[in-house]
Design goal:
The protein is of the alpha/beta class and about 260 residues long. The protein has a domain of about 180 residues: Decaprenyl diphosphate synthase-like (Undecaprenyl pyrophosphate synthetase, 3-Layer(aba) Sandwich). The protein is built from nine helices and six strands. It has a six-stranded parallel β-sheet with strand order 3-4-2-1-5-6, sandwiched between helices. Strand 3, helix 5 and strand 4 form a beta-alpha-beta unit. The longest helix is centred in the N-terminal third of the chain and has 21 residues. It is globular and about 65 Å long. The model has no long low-confidence stretch (mean pLDDT about 90).
């Protein structure tokens, strides 16, 4: 271990303790969204002892970080977390990379459900996914239903625009089943009428959205739900995201004045 690493290992626990002690849990968000970005870049910049810089190695390292994050959320009274694991655009990647990524995601969801600590809820267009992955997601949801711990939305095959289109389609289909004319449908369409058909229907919107890897954009994540969210962009790649980074995000959120248009 280098001298710098040794100093960090000694100092960061003290710093984390101070951050935690200063954090007002009454001002922490109830729902956070997290864009787990930077796995592939992390792998390229941090080769294994054997020289492995593959994207799958980065995705595995990122998957291992998720349980840590959920433990941090438990410690800070966060009760709903939405994790963006696979976008609908990601499905356009090369078949070789996509096959490995989907396998890692499926195993990750199985691992989360196996803890028995959190309620797993798939969020996305399951019909776009391979049948085996969709089945494992549904199984994890059924297996964890009723668990009183944190609800974990796993956004897989998710795209913000796609979600809004899907919600509007479902709204129109329901209107069609009762024979409403187009003029009545147009008159009745509203934020509330669309909201109940979103993938996250029935859940509160996220107060805080965190993105790792230094990219400062949402990329369509929770496009509808994040209209009043606070955003926090962290330079660390997702596999390097630390508890201290998480606490800094919460501290930043707690310090902001949320007027919500008032």
């Amino acid at each position: 271990m280098s001298l710098r690493s040794l100093v960090k290992s000694l100092v960061y626990p003290i710093y984390e303790g101070r951050l935690m002690a200063q954090l007002d849990l009454s001002r922490t968000p109830h729902h956070i969204g997290v864009i787990l970005d930077g796995n592939r870049r992390w792998a390229k910049e941090n080769p294994s002892p054997t020289g492995d810089t593959s994207s799958s190695r980065g995705h595995r390292a990122g998957a291992e970080k998720i349980i840590e994050l959920l433990q941090w959320c438990e410690d800070t009274d966060i009760n709903l977390v939405t994790l963006w694991l696979l976008s609908s655009d990601n499905l356009k990647r090369s078949p070789q990379e996509l096959e490995k990524l989907i396998s890692i995601i499926a195993d990750t969801v199985d691992d989360l459900s196996a803890t028995g600590r959190w309620q797993i809820r798939p969020v996305g267009s399951l019909e776009l996914l391979p049948e085996e992955l969709a089945a494992r997601l549904k199984n994890a949801e059924a297996k964890t239903a009723g668990i009183s711990g944190i609800t974990v939305n796993v956004a897989i095959g998710y795209g913000g625009r796609l979600e809004i289109v899907d919600a509007f389609k479902k709204y129109l289909q329901e209107c069609g089943t009762v024979g409403k004319p187009i003029t009545q449908i147009a008159d009745e369409v509203s934020v509330d009428s669309i909201d109940k058909y979103l993938y996250t229907a029935g859940q509160p919107d996220p107060e805080l959205v965190i993105r790792t890897s230094g990219e400062q954009r949402l990329g369509g994540f929770l496009l509808w739900q994040s209209h009043q969210s606070e955003f926090y962009f962290c330079e660390a790649y997702w596999p390097d995201f630390r508890r201290v980074d998480f606490l800094r995000a919460l501290r930043s959120y707690a310090a902001r004045q949320r007027r919500l248009g008032k």
